Amino acid sequence: MFVEKGAAIVSHLGQLEAAVMECLWAHDEAMPVREVLTELNGSRELAYTTVMTVLDNLHRKGMVARSKAGRAWVYIPVGSRSSYTAELMEEALAGNPDRGAALLHFVEKLPADELMQLRQLLDPTGPDPSVTSKSPASETARQL
């Protein structure tokens, strides 16, 4: 979705690209450059051509789709903010030969409420009672 054609590298966003994507993700419909510009200019002064170039770059990266609406292009995200975040996490994990250890370190840093949410998402019936070790890593795994 957010990967370049044939590549396994997720598109990393620059500061302005991230601001544009946040604007698009906040809306349920495609937006023309002018509307994106108007929203972004609430916090900074940008030129129309700057926003147009950023949207074109995001389109080339596969982050947004565009279509004609009259004479103007309108842009809409290809995926959700959460799917983009998941792809960034997948890329980070792909660079580690021990994905399990990396995941465990990540999970150990989660606040209790997010750990509970993760547990419910993974197994709505509850934790695995067969995990009995009391090491911090095993305790975290047991909680999942």
TrEMBL record:
Leader sequence segment: none
Keywords: DNA-binding, Transcription, Transcription regulation
InterPro entries: BlaI_family, WH-like_DNA-bd_sf, WH_DNA-bd_sf
Domain of life: Bacteria
Region Disordered, residue ranges: 122-144
Keyword match Transcription: yes
GO molecular function: DNA binding
Comp. bias intervals (Polar residues): 130-144
GO biological process: negative regulation of DNA-templated transcription
Annotated family: Belongs to the BlaI transcriptional regulatory family.
Name of this chain's protein: BlaI/MecI/CopY family transcriptional regulator
Native source organism of the sequence: Nocardioides piscis
Species classification: Bacteria, Bacillati, Actinomycetota, Actinomycetes, Propionibacteriales
